[in-house]
Backbone:
């Protein structure tokens, strides 16, 4: 929802500064968002000076180094550390991306790490993703058929399979979802780019037999048509996918059957 | 919040799909496409009629082609403006009462604006 004033306790204050260990020569400063809703305090931005000579190349390596060596209370999600699980999505250097595939070298000056925008914060860099998960579940991301199951695989031509390229690779990190102003203002009713890209993954699947039903569910001024082609989604996707185009394909399918 | 205890899935499904999203979207696109040539025509005509007296204007507007284009321009413009305002209000206004009041007001203004332009144009063109 559009709000011109911030709710209480949302303005970040200056936090603790952690200087680099003595003798460090290749120092970079990391500004990290910290918030503990239980404490009743405002969020704060902690500063960590790290010796990059003793740190891995990615932003996630820096976060893990901080947690292991400087402040074990820093809270964030991470798992695969190679860009396939979608856990470590944050707002890094002003853009949503996954920390494990974002080289520190690519960032000029200090590195700023915030949680994904406009989501409720559980603690520090962990935000509440229950709403997008429920939206994903609501579009029923599984194959639906009436034809009895064959004794072998459901066949698909190479051309039919190619339609899924650029869609199946999504790792549900929700970088695009939370970069979309339309999702910020109307996330309760707008499905958002990540969920719509996933919806299109099933709409385009030649093996699925519920295409019409899926389109019925999306033929709604809020669920689908809150997309105003702002294209933040396609700019921010760490897997270089194009949710904007996927949404365009759904609109095209709906226009075709008019 | 009213549905605090409701499951997240229940909240997301809400009142269900309205099943008429594409009509609004399509109308917005069609009127936008129509307005490209119509707006250029309207501006060019207005400029070429600068300084013309009433009789000249009356003769111009009563020509069949000009009258049709003028009425098309008026209808497309008010329809498009109404659809656009509706989108903006739905995007940014979240209080239910304010939203509905603004949406209805916009529709009334667009309808009265369009009808009054059509009546004025026809009066000048047909009766002089």
Residues:
């Amino acid at each position: 929802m559009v709000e011109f004033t911030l709710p209480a306790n949302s303005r970040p204050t200056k936090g603790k500064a952690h200087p680099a260990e003595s003798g460090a020569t290749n120092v970079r400063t990391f500004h990290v968002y910290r918030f503990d809703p239980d404490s009743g305090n405002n969020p704060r931005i902690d500063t960590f000076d790290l010796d990059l000579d003793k740190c891995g190349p990615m932003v996630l390596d820096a976060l893990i180094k901080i947690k292991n060596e400087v402040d074990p209370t820093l809270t964030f999600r991470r798992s695969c550390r190679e860009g396939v699980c979608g856990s470590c999505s944050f707002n890094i250097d002003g853009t949503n991306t996954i920390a494990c595939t974002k080289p520190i070298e690519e960032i000029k000056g200090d590195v700023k790490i915030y949680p994904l925008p406009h989501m409720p914060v559980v603690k520090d860099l962990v935000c509440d993703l229950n709403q997008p998960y429920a939206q994903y579940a609501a579009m029923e991301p599984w194959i639906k058929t009436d034809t009895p199951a064959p004794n072998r695989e459901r066949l698909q031509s190479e051309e039919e399979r190619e339609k899924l390229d650029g869609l199946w690779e999504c790792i549900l990190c929700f970088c695009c979802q939370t970069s979309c102003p339309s999702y910020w203002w109307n996330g309760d009713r707008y499905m958002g780019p990540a969920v719509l890209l996933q919806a299109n993954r099933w709409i385009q699947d030649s093996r699925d037999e519920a295409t019409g039903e899926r389109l019925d569910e999306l033929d709604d001024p809020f669920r689908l048509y809150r997309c105003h082609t702002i294209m933040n989604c396609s700019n921010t996707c760490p897997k270089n996918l194009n949710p904007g185009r996927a949404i365009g394909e759904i609109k095209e399918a709906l226009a075709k059957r008019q | 919040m009213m549905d605090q205890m409701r499951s997240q899935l229940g909240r997301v499904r809400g009142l269900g799909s309205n099943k008429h999203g594409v009509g609004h979207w399509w109308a917005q696109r069609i009127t936008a496409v129509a307005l490209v040539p119509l707006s250029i025509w309207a501006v060019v005509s207005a400029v070429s009629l600068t300084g013309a007296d009433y009789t000249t204007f009356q003769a111009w507007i009563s020509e069949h082609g000009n009258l049709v284009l003028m009425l098309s321009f008026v209808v497309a413009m008010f329809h498009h403006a109404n659809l656009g305002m509706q989108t903006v209000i739905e995007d940014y206004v979240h209080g239910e009462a304010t939203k509905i009041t603004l949406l209805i007001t916009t529709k009334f203004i667009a309808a009265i604006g369009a009808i009054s332009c059509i009546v004025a144009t026809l009066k000048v063109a047909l009766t002089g």
Observations:
- Chain B has a mean pLDDT of 95.
